């Protein structure tokens, strides 16, 4: 039973989380795009500006959540796509390990970047 | 069991002509999803330059933003993200069991809306690059 | 060789019910079927399943209606057993989860049906047979009963005693359609034939392409008599191009029949001045054909069934499936145009002669379902009585074959030396049967060891198929079949005249001669439907001949059987069944009296009017 | 003009012995002769409208057919003709080795699902008049071909049978004649799901089923739905069924492509049923938390 609750397991939890993160991402991704392309234009971005935004705690937390949900959502999505293609056995194990590691790497690196930008 | 002939890949390729709305939606969603996760990795990689100091960060960013190609790719990214969002919303409704009869219409709506938003955003995205 | 206690041939309603019953008796059962069970034609039944379930109804009334419907050609022990067992069988289906239509209080709904004195037809929407077939198959899956699907049974393995009453059946020979493998199936306790209808003997039928009377012909050539074969029910409203059935519901709701002159002929030509379109099936079918014969048919083929005046709302509410049928199978929009209809072969009342336990005269050989004739439907089957028959007699055959203790049967089976015989004066049977021992009959089996009997039969079958496949040139079975169907529809249809019947027998003789040169163009062992159809055509020849022989012999008008020269029922002469025995290639027609004394009542023949 | 002369002349000009009946018979005879003449002509050359069929051919055993190919058949068109009718004509008139499954001819046996002009359809339920010619008939995609239009169905059957496709209540009434009650709403709920004829069209149209062999597929999930939603079954069985439904290769694999729903000849809302089961599984599992 326990396995069901891991993010790589099949079953309702992963499915539900994929939807919940999607719902969350709709808002945040739209906000993110809007903020960094329309409010501030992408070509105007400078370290200082990023830092200023990151020092707002609300923004910082949102970005971390953004990172976590997007990572889960994206990696779980890719994993699902692979299972849908019928991978099995060793292949599946490899996919789990590789994707898991990639997700971990992404999250760790993302947090480090966020910390740097926020100046922690 | 008798020996049997597997039509293999011939049958899968070329079938796209016969795809219906729901299939296309799935193909596009899959494609955009992969692009987005791919971008997420690159994005974090690019932002990592901030760890080498503000200078590097600014240089990398402005360097990239100075390239017309990057600007165009960003428009593509926008298209991809908008479609994924809109179709994602469509899928969420499908998951809730709402409006299944008009799933094809909502897919076309996502496509059209994506087109409109992207076209409308082009000026903002490319301003100053050319 | 495969081995089981009980082998059931056919996975339709009767076969599945038999297999479940035998399994419940503890037997190791296998179903051998040429179609996957869910593809069987039981799935096509729309109307319903009759059983006396409610207060105010009784099995006696159901039996009475059935006997009256049969025009007193049913055997009372069969009719009584049927009516008594039906309620339990239907509730059994309910317990197995069949999605019956329901009343407000959650009980199974029952509706009125033609010829019934009480609304006792249970149903599941307009697809009762589909649900019944799938429910039964589900139970087969649940019990893990082995199914050999797409295996074509072509012979029963029977010992070669002279008298069919002395023969024993030890199994069947079948052939795997997918791979071409021919194998013996040894049945330790019994073989149950449940192969369904024989509509393909006619060129216009509501029956499936697979309904080729295989079981009937197989049992017949092994020595079992065919009973009341002339009793064929024709349905008045079938679509001309495919034979798809348009249910009585359309006429029940107020649909009208027109001829090409736009006349409402049921009234205008006095076929049924009271009931009009709602007269019984045979009356309407004859009226339609008379119109066509007298030149008032549309395209000289069919008449119109019009429901447009009922209004779109009522049609979509009550007859929606009819709209789909007309649209999908005839390309006609029932809301815009009248639907073309004509009579089509629908059901065979006759078949393999069996008793109440499904036993034939050959020990260990049983039959159930449409291929069998317990003498339940006699001269005419009531709508909704075939499906419960599958259940009641399927279950009984299964139980008996598996060795259950059952009372002595009251119905006799098997050829009788002293029976009254009829010489029809027209050549019938296998050309040259006298010289050569007929094929397909009891194979010469000096051995008494059951396995050797099965193996020897399998060997003859291998040779036969080898010969068919080796022949490089000859007659295509499709031509023989087409000619046979055409002649049957022309001559042995709703209208039967002596001269036409004789013509049909001559045509059949002719077809038999041609069949001797038949060849199979497709030489592949893989899924060779050409070969399969070739073998089926042979079976059709045998059943068509018996149908025609019976029709020629029965010089009266009873039930579905109408003779131009003999316009009334003759109870003093013909209260008897016609039986045809293969007799090693020289068919013989004889009679056995009808049994009218039942458990509770003796049925007195009355005029059949509704 | 006198009113007495009118039409009598013209009336007497007709042979007075002809009753309308005889006239019709004569006409009928004439029409029959015409038809026979037409048929005779048709035997040499097909007249009138025709349909061109392009049919996939393959037989592992027969020389020249081991390599799959398409054969063309020209078949006379008749009003109301279905794809199955055309195939039967081609087989009976031109090539008796043309192989395909069929039986009922009325969309209940589920034998003849083919890939016709790029879509899974029942041959018997498809009017030629609704298709653009030439009509291309192929075996169902994503299934192994046994011969010509016949595909291997075993995998489909295995999936159908893996969902415990049978009614299995915790208890049934003791009395043989007492029925279990089912209210009308509950019957309505499962009604559409019970219409499946096992044709396999849905499974063949689903890309996920094509990639993932273990995926139950729309038809089997629909079968599971039929029993899961039936209130006459008990709690224990319901739990067991849920486990089958929500296993890794159960409902979660469905990506809502809707092609199953589009092709189902019995108009079963398959995607809807699958989605409902996904939500049901989530709901049931949330209860454990
Ligand atoms: C359109 C239509 C509507 C009907 N409506 C009703 C109705 O409303 N109510 C009612 O009571 N009755 C109705 N009937 C009659 C009833 O449906 C049939 O009589 C009944 O279903 C026959 O069932 P069966 O099991 O005997 O045969 P089938 O269901 O035909 O099954 C025959 C089985 O035998 C197998 N088989 C055949 N030959 C061989 C062989 N050589 N080797 C191996 N296997 C073989 C086949 O594969 C098949 O599985 C209707 C019939 C039709 C055609
Ligand atoms: C950073 C943002 C996002 C990334 C990286 C991302 C990535 C992905 C990926 C890789 C997939 C798998 C695609 C496949 O099946 O091959 C996916 C699926 C999905 N995405 Fe996103 N996505 C993002 C944002 C969103 C948003 C904003 C929504 C909005 C609702 C969304 C909704 C969905 C849904 C519903 C699926 C599920 C497909 C399924 O499993 O049935 N995604 N996403
Ligand atoms: S669900 Fe529809 S398409 Fe699928 S097998 Fe059943 S009837 Fe065929
Ligand atoms: S096509 Fe396949 S993906 Fe789901 S909606 Fe149907 S099962
Ligand atoms: S032939 Fe039975 S479904 Fe088409």
UniProtKB/TrEMBL annotation, chain A:
UniProt xrefs under InterPro entries: SQR/QFR_C/D, SuccDH_FuR_B_TM-su
Major subcellular location class: membrane
Keywords (A to Z) from UniProt: Heme, Iron, Membrane, Metal-binding, Oxidoreductase, Transmembrane, Transmembrane helix
Domain of life: Archaea
Location in or out of the cell: Membrane
Keyword RNA-binding set for record: no
GO terms for MF: metal ion binding; succinate dehydrogenase (quinone) activity
Residue stretches spanning the membrane: 20-39, 59-82, 94-114
A matching Pfam family: Sdh_cyt
Signal peptide: none
EC number of this enzyme: 1.3.5.1
Uppermost EC category: oxidoreductase
Cellular component annotations (GO), alphabetically ordered: membrane
Protein name: Succinate dehydrogenase subunit D
Automatic annotation (TrEMBL), chain B:
Organism: Halobacterium hubeiense
UniProt keyword Plastid, yes or no: no
Protein name per its UniProtKB record: Succinate dehydrogenase subunit C
A GO MF label: electron transfer activity
Transmembrane segments: 23-47, 68-86, 106-126
A Pfam family assignment: Sdh_cyt
InterPro entries tied to this protein: SdhC_prok, SQR/QFR_C/D, Succ_DH_cytb556, SuccDH_FuR_B_TM-su
NCBIfam families tied to this protein: succ_dehyd_cytB (TIGR02970)
Highest taxon listed in the record's lineage: Archaea
UniProt entry keywords in alphabetical sequence: Heme, Iron, Membrane, Metal-binding, Oxidoreductase, Transmembrane, Transmembrane helix
EC category name: oxidoreductase
Compartment annotation: Membrane
Principal location listed in the UniProt entry: membrane
Entry GO CC: membrane
Protein EC: 1.3.5.1
Any GO BP: tricarboxylic acid cycle
TrEMBL record, chain C:
Membrane topology: Peripheral membrane protein
Compartment annotation: Membrane
Chief location of this protein within or outside the cell: membrane
Record: active site: 281
Domain FAD-dependent oxidoreductase 2 FAD-binding as annotated: residue spans: 5-387
Residue span, Fumarate reductase/succinate dehydrogenase flavoprotein-like C-terminal domain: 481-610
Keywords: Electron transport, FAD, Flavoprotein, Membrane, Oxidoreductase, Transport
GO molecular function list: succinate dehydrogenase (quinone) activity
Enzyme nomenclature, EC number: 1.3.5.1
Cofactor: FAD
GO cellular component term, pick one: membrane
Tree of life domain: Archaea
Stretches for region Disordered: 402-451
Family: Belongs to the FAD-dependent oxidoreductase 2 family. FRD/SDH subfamily.
UniProt name for this protein: succinate dehydrogenase
Provenance organism: Halobacterium hubeiense
From TrEMBL, chain D:
Biased composition (Basic and acidic residues): 21-38
Domain Succinate dehydogenase/fumarate reductase N-terminal: 53-157
Keyword Iron (UniProt): yes
Annotated stretches, region: Disordered: 1-46, 164-186
Stretch forming the signal peptide: none
Compositional bias per record (Polar residues), positions renumbered to this chain: 1-20
Record key words, sorted: 2Fe-2S, 4Fe-4S, Iron, Iron-sulfur, Metal-binding, Oxidoreductase
Top-level taxon of origin: Archaea
Record Pfam families: Fer2_3 (PF13085), Fer4_8 (PF13183)
Composition bias type Acidic residues, residue spans: 167-178
Regions annotated as coiled coil: none
Gene Ontology process terms (BP): respiratory electron transport chain; tricarboxylic acid cycle
One of the record's GO molecular function terms: 2 iron, 2 sulfur cluster binding
Pathway: Carbohydrate metabolism; tricarboxylic acid cycle
Similarity field: Belongs to the succinate dehydrogenase/fumarate reductase iron-sulfur protein family.
NCBIfam families given in the database record: dhsB, PRK05950.1
Name this polypeptide is given: Succinate dehydrogenase subunit B
Lineage, uppermost ranks: Archaea, Methanobacteriati, Methanobacteriota, Stenosarchaea group, Halobacteria
GN (gene name): sdhB
């Amino acid at each position: 039973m326990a396995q069901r609750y891991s993010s790589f397991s099949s079953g309702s939890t992963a499915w539900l989380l994929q939807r919940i993160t999607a719902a969350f991402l709709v808002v945040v991704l739209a906000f993110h795009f809007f903020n960094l392309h329309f409010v501030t234009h992408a070509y105007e971005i400078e370290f200082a500006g990023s830092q200023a935004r990151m020092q707002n705690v609300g923004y910082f937390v949102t970005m971390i959540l953004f990172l976590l949900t997007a990572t889960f959502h994206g990696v779980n999505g890719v994993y699902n796509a692979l299972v849908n293609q019928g991978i099995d056995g060793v292949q599946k194990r490899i996919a789990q390990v590789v994707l898991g590691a990639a997700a971990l790497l992404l999250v760790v690196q993302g947090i480090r970047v966020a910390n740097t930008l926020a100046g922690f | 069991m008798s020996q049997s002939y597997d039509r293999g890949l011939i049958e899968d390729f070329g079938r796209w002509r016969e795809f219906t709305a729901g299939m296309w939606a799935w193909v596009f969603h899959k494609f955009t999803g992969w692009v987005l996760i791919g971008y997420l990795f690159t994005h974090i990689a690019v932002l990592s330059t901030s760890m080498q100091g503000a200078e590097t960060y600014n240089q990398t960013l402005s360097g990239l933003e100075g390239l017309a190609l990057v600007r165009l790719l960003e428009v593509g990214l926008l298209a991809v993200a908008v479609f994924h969002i809109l179709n994602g919303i469509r899928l969420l409704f499908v998951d809730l069991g709402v409006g299944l009869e008009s799933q094809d219409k909502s897919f076309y709506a996502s496509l059209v809306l994506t087109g409109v938003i992207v076209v409308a955003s082009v000026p903002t995205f490319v301003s100053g690059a050319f | 060789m495969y081995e089981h206690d009980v082998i059931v041939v056919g996975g339709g309603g009767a076969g599945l019910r038999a297999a479940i019953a035998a399994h419940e008796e503890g037997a190791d059962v296998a179903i051998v079927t040429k179609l996957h069970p869910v593809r069987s034609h039981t799935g096509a039944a729309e109307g319903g399943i009759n059983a006396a379930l409610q207060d105010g109804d009784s099995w006696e009334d159901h039996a009475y209606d059935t006997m009256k419907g049969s025009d007193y050609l049913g055997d009372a022990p069969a009719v009584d057993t049927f009516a008594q067992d039906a309620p339990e069988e239907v509730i059994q289906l309910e317990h197995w989860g069949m999605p019956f239509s329901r009343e407000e209080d959650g009980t199974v709904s029952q509706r009125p049906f033609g010829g019934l004195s009480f609304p006792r037809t249970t149903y599941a929407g307009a697809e009762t047979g589909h649900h019944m077939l799938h429910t039964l198959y589900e139970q087969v899956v649940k019990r893990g009963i082995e199914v050999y699907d797409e295996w074509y049974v072509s012979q029963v393995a029977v010992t070669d005693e002279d008298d069919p009453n002395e023969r024993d059946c030890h199994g069947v020979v079948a052939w795997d359609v997918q791979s071409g493998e021919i194998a013996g199936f040894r049945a330790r306790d019994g073989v149950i034939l449940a192969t369904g209808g024989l509509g393909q003997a006619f060129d216009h039928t509501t029956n499936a392409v697979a309904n080729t009377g295989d079981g009937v012909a197989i049992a017949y050539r092994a020595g079992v008599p065919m009973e009341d074969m002339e009793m064929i029910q024709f349905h008045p409203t079938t679509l001309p191009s495919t034979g798809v059935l348009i249910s009585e519901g359309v006429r029940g709701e107020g649909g009208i029949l027109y001829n090409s002159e736009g006349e409402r002929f049921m009234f205008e030509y006095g076929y049924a001045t009271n009931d009009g379109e709602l007269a019984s099936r045979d009356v309407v079918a004859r009226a339609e054909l008379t119109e066509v014969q007298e030149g008032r048919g549309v395209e000289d083929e069919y008449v119109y069934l019009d429901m447009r005046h009922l209004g779109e709302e009522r049609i979509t509410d009550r007859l929606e499936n009819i709209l789909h049928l007309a649209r999908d199978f005839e390309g006609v929009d029932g809301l815009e145009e009248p639907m073309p209809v004509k009579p089509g072969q629908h059901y065979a009342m006759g078949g393999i002669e069996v008793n109440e336990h499904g036993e034939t005269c050959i020990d260990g050989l049983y039959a159930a379902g449409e291929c069998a004739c317990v003498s339940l439907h006699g001269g005419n089957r009531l709508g909704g009585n075939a499906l419960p028959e599958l259940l009641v007699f399927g279950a009984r055959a299964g139980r008996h074959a598996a060795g259950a203790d059952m009372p002595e049967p009251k119905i006799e089976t098997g050829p009788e030396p002293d029976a009254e015989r009829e010489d029809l004066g027209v050549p019938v049977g296998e050309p040259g049967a006298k010289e050569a021992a007929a094929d397909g009959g009891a194979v010469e089996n000096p051995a008494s060891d059951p396995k050797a009997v099965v193996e020897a039969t399998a060997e003859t079958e291998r040779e036969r198929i080898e010969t068919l496949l080796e022949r490089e040139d000859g007659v295509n079975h499709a031509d023989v079949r087409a000619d046979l169907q055409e002649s049957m529809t022309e001559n042995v249809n709703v209208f039967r005249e002596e001269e036409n019947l004789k013509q049909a027998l001559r045509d059949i003789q002719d077809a038999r001669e041609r069949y001797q040169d038949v060849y199979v163009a497709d030489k592949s062992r893989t899924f060779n439907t050409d070969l399969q159809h070739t073998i089926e055509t042979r079976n059709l020849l045998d059943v068509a001949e018996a149908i025609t022989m019976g029709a020629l012999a029965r010089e009266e008008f009873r039930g579905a059987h109408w003779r131009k020269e003999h316009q009334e029922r003759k109870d003093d002469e013909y209260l008897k069944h016609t039986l045809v025995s293969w007799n090693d290639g020289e068919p013989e027609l004889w009679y056995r009296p009808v049994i009218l004394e039942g458990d509770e009542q003796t049925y007195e023949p009355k005029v059949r009017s509704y | 003009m006198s009113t007495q002369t009118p039409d009598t002349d013209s009336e007497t000009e007709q042979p007075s012995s002809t009753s309308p009946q005889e006239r019709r018979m004569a006409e009928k005879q004439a029409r029959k002769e015409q038809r026979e003449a037409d048929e005779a002509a048709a035997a040499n050359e097909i007249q009138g409208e025709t349909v061109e069929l392009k049919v996939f051919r393959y037989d592992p055993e027969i020389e020249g057919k081991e390599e799959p190919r398409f054969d063309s058949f020209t078949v006379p068109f008749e009003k109301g003709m279905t794809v199955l009718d055309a195939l039967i004509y081609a087989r009976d008139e031109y090539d008796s080795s043309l192989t395909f499954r069929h039986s009922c001819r009325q969309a209940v046996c589920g034998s003849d699902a083919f890939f016709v002009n790029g879509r899974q359809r029942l041959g018997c339920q498809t009017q030629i008049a609704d298709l653009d010619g030439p009509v291309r008939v192929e075996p169902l995609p994503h299934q192994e071909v046994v011969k010509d239009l016949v595909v291997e169905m075993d995998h489909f059957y295995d999936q159908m049978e893996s969902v415990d496709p049978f009614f299995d209540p915790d208890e049934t009434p003791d009395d043989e004649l007492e029925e279990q009650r089912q209210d009308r709403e509950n019957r309505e709920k499962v009604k559409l799901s019970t219409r499946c004829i096992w044709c396999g069209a849905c499974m063949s149209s689903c890309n996920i089923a094509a990639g993932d062999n273990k995926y139950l597929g729309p038809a089997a999930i629909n079968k599971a739905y039929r029993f899961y939603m039936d209130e006459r079954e008990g709690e224990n069985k319901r739990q067991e069924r849920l486990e089958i439904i929500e296993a890794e290769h159960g409902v979660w694999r469905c990506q809502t492509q809707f092609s199953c729903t589009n092709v189902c000849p019995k108009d079963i809302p398959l995607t809807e049923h699958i989605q409902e089961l996904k939500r049901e599984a989530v709901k049931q599992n949330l209860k454990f938390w």
